[in-house]
Specification:
The complex is a heterodimer of chains A (about 290) and B (about 575). Chain A is about 35% helix and about 15% strand. With about 290 residues, chain A is an alpha/beta fold. Chain A has a single domain (about 5-290), classed as Rossmann fold (3-Layer(aba) Sandwich), CATH 3.40.50. In chain A, helix 3 packs across helix 5 (about 105-115). Helix content of chain B is about 30%, strand content about 20%. Chain B is globular and about 120 Å long. Classes of the chains: A alpha/beta (about 290), B alpha/beta (about 575).
């Protein structure tokens, strides 16, 4: 794979992300594509720490650290300020975890995109509150262990479908992306940058620490999430037009689950049940994309 | 616009002014990745030790000349081997476990043909003149290979060939439909252009050989096995019985001869197959009679298959008993055999079956039951009467007080007698002589062992000369070590071939040319096991921005100040060109 944008580097070494952190890979790809003319709004999340303690920063662009629930609102304000200065060139990006997007920051996000505020909201999804000690979020998938869904109380609720929630706002552009598919990810960030209005990207970012996986497996597991249809890669324009971007090899979901410590307790019956859920969601997506009658 | 100072006066916000680069996160590391190229299974399986993974990589880049030169560093006859080698490389290709092996032999032939068509001159490194002269007896593949490598190593070489043209068995024993004369001649012309002198029509007798041992610094004896062995049965030398090898030689030499009617061919090697297929092309019918089973035949399976396509009949488990003259030809009497277990080579062990003899009437019988040396002094010595005999895998080195050292090579010393093994023998001889002159005979074994490809026995000139290939780990990459997620299923190229009807009446080459486009696409199927092709996965996926690249993007190294040792680069390397090790304090 040779991508021209890939030669640009706006992230520094020496950050304190865990070894094999998927969220840092996501940030590298995104910044390589967004370029220097970017202001990033960081509500509380892993990246609040990875971006560095004062006076250090691991990012070579301006960053505003903000409260957990205010990503959408702060970005709206930054955009308004830039507009007042006549700066249309700079892109405003919210970079939030799943907690700040699916749960705590959801009202600010929903309010901002309802107004079609002109920014990109990127959720890097590691499927729990990893930074504070692996507490479950509404993004934590069915079947997962977290410190708040431990033992036999593993999570028995499905993951919130955040892209569908955003699509329901009829925003200009919403898409999923994955750190194991850099070309697709880069294309989507570029497309988002070139679109006006509210744009939303949901990036799958594996977490070796919270998922109980070896650090070197984080990209392989991310790829497996796509190949098993657990995390399909697709985009939606204007809340209506669906396109599926990667045709999966359709491995069985157990191939994905067996690689991760957080799913170790699941029985064969549980896995069969999960396979059924994944199949159902995939069929629904195929219908939306017009690939099934 | 406000000045920066004015801005600071109104902004009540902490502003960072340092990067995180002062945190040397490399201290977290307990595993250490590093770049380490490894050995591809194809290259290790090639008797000539060609650097196949790299050759295919160069083809994908369109660097045909460089790819061809990479072959020439290890094998002077790619145009011959691309056609007639039994390609053990493809049998070990890791791609077999994914979809199908890469058509390595077709690509080798493509490179040789492209170079010949464009009259490309290779730019190969030649060592400084060593000031020594080597005589080579026999211009077959072994002799040509020895001369080629000795020439690169800085020696003066004279080849003496008894026949009117060079090529040995490749010219006189392999029919044109497998190896056209033009393809062979182009290779020989290039070897001569490199500075090798070939004296054709010069037979070396025992007396002249002894004389040469005084006038040259070393000799290579690669005069091959030319005397077809006759069968030890009644009637084997009678009327209507011909020897297969000399028949092939006559046809290659231009004898126009029709072979009508039915001919029986006794034997199971490549000569038997070639005799039968030549008979078909001369208007006859051919029946191959073999005493063991088809799967025990020493002939290459693909050649046997082609022969049967063309109408050659194969009868197995029939041992010849006698040949009798009869009206209009002869009658071959055969004893049916049966298999009881295996012999030590893993072939079926045969004993006479309790069945009546079978008789086959044929106009003539060809024997192709193996070949031997033409004169007793061609045989390599078991031990020197007064000197040292060093028996290597593909040659025998004799050093005694009667003159210059002699290397017996090619078919004279090889266990498996074919073109590629002969090339391997010539290379081994050249390297052995170079070691002998530089470090003495006592160092030969050890020095040769240090330049094997993988775990041997193939030798590499590039490794011997200390080239980059020397850095590679001998570990042979397995399919499990390939990250198959990075490859798509793609069918192997379909080799265009002459129609069967076209083959019946002509000695035209059966396998047709492939286009550059097809070659590049086929090379693109190669995993390039164990070698870096600058795919940049390591750089892209590093969460710590710890892969540094040279300005021209061809070289990478790891910044251990920041690498946390997560190992992602190693897992995401599609071809196992990186290694993860425990960090040593």
């Amino acid at each position: 794979m040779q991508l021209e944008a890939m030669d640009r580097e706006l992230m520094c070494s020496g950050h304190v992300g865990c070894p094999g952190c998927g969220a840092t890979i996501a940030m590298r790809f995104a910044l390589k594509t967004l370029g220097e003319k970017t202001i990033m709004v960081l509500p509380a999340c892993c990246w609040s720490v990875i971006a560095g303690p004062f006076p250090q920063s691991s990012l070579k662009i301006p960053v505003i650290h903000t409260a957990f629930e205010t990503g959408g609102a702060t970005a709206s304000g930054v955009r308004a300020a830039l507009d007042m200065r006549g700066d249309e060139e700079t892109t405003v990006v919210v970079w939030a975890g799943d907690g700040g997007t699916f749960d705590i920051g959801f009202q600010a996000l929903s309010g901002a995109v309802e107004r079609n505020e002109n920014f990109i909201y990127i959720c890097y999804d590691n499927e729990a509150y990893m930074n504070t000690g692996i507490q479950r979020s509404s993004s934590t998938p069915y079947g997962a262990w977290t410190t708040t869904t431990s033992g036999s109380d593993w999570k028995k609720l499905r993951k919130k479908n955040i892209v569908e929630a955003l699509v329901a706002h009829r925003i200009p552009y919403a898409a999923t992306a994955n750190i194991a598919y850099p070309e697709d990810l880069v294309r989507k960030v570029r497309k988002a940058r070139e679109t006006k209005g509210s744009r939303f990207l949901h990036i799958y970012a594996s977490c070796p620490t919270g998922w109980r996986i070896p650090a070197e497996m984080s990209v392989r597991i991310a790829r497996m999430a796509v190949q098993t249809n657990i995390f399909p890669l697709y985009e939606v324009e204007n809340g209506i037009d669906y396109t599926i971007n990667v045709k999966p090899r359709e491995y069985l979901v157990r191939e994905y689950f067996k690689l991760q410590g957080r799913f170790r307790h699941l029985s064969e019956e549980d896995l069969d049940q999960i396979q059924g859920m994944v199949n159902e969601d995939w069929e629904r997506l195929l219908r939306k994309a017009g690939e099934r009658a | 616009m406000e000045t920066p100072t004015a801005l600071q006066n109104v902004l009540y916000m902490p502003r960072t002014f340092a990067t995180t680069e002062s945190n040397k996160t490399g201290a977290w590391r307990f595993l250490r990745p590093r770049y380490e190229e490894k050995t591809s299974p194809c290259g290790a399986a090639c008797p000539a030790g060609e650097d196949i993974a790299r050759i295919e990589m160069l083809i994908t880049q369109g660097a045909f000349k460089e790819a061809w030169e990479t072959i020439l560093m290890e094998n002077p006859l790619p145009g011959v081997c691309g056609r007639v080698c039994y390609h053990p490389c493809e049998g070990r290709c890791n791609r077999r476990e994914f979809d199908a092996a890469v058509a390595i032999h077709s690509l080798e032939r493509f490179l040789a043909d492209a170079a010949a068509r464009n009259e490309t001159k290779p730019a190969l490194p030649r060592q400084p003149a060593a000031g020594r002269r080597i005589a080579i007896i026999g211009a077959g593949p072994a002799g040509l290979s020895a001369a080629w490598f000795l020439n690169i190593l800085g020696y003066e070489t004279d080849i003496f060939e008894a026949m009117p043209a060079a090529g040995g068995m490749t010219r006189w024993g392999i029919p044109a439909y497998r190896l056209p004369e033009a393809a062979l001649s182009a290779e020989i012309a290039r070897i001569e252009a490199q500075g090798v002198r070939i004296h054709t029509g010069e037979t070396v007798t025992a007396a002249r050989f002894e004389e040469m041992r005084k006038s040259y610094d070393a000799l290579f004896l690669g005069c091959g096995h030319w005397r077809g062995l006759s069968l030890d049965i009644p009637g084997a030398t009678g009327v209507g019985v011909e020897e297969g090898l000399s028949f092939l030689r006559d046809i290659r030499g231009g004898v126009r001869r029709d072979i009508p009617g039915v001919s029986a061919v006794i034997g199971g090697g490549n000569t038997a197959i070639d005799v039968a297929r030549t008979i078909i092309r001369r208007g006859g019918r051919a029946i191959i009679v073999y005493r063991r089973r088809r799967e025990d035949m020493p002939a290459f399976a693909e050649e046997t298959r082609s022969a049967q396509e063309e109408g050659v009949e194969l009868r197995e488990l029939l041992a010849p008993v006698r040949i009798d003259a009869a009206a209009g030809g002869c009658v071959l009497t055969l004893q049916p055999m049966t298999v009881v277990g295996q012999d030590q080579d893993g072939r079926g062990k045969i004993v006479p079956a309790a069945a009546a003899p079978v008789r086959i009437a044929a106009q003539r019988v060809f024997t192709a039951a193996g070949a031997g040396t033409a004169a007793p002094w061609h045989e390599p010595p078991a031990s020197g009467a007064s000197g040292a005999v060093l028996a290597l895998s593909h040659c025998v080195l004799l050093q005694d007080d009667r003159g210059a050292p002699v290397v017996y090579g090619g078919d004279l010393a090889a266990r498996d007698k074919n073109v590629t093994q002969a090339i391997a023998s010539g290379k081994q001889a050249a390297l052995a002589l170079d070691v002998l002159f530089r470090h003495g005979v006592g160092s030969v074994r050890e020095r040769l062992a240090s330049c094997v490809v993988g775990h041997g026995p193939a030798l590499s000139l590039e490794i011997y000369l200390g080239g980059p290939r020397r850095e590679r780990n001998a570990h042979i990459v397995t399919y499990e070590e390939i990250n198959a997620d990075y490859f798509q299923y793609e069918p192997r190229l379909v080799q265009p071939r002459l129609l069967i009807e076209e083959r019946h009446s002509s000695f035209d080459e059966i396998e047709l040319k492939i286009s550059a486009h097809t070659a590049m696409r086929e090379a693109g199927r190669c995993f390039h096991c164990g070698i870096c092709n600058n795919c940049d996965n390591c750089y892209l996926f590093c969460p710590d921005v710890a892969i540094l690249r040279a300005r021209d993007m061809t070289d990478r190294h790891i910044d251990y100040d920041y690498c946390k040792g997560c190992g992602l680069c190693v897992v995401e390397c599609p071809r196992n060109a990186m290694t993860l090790e425990e960090e040593t304090p």
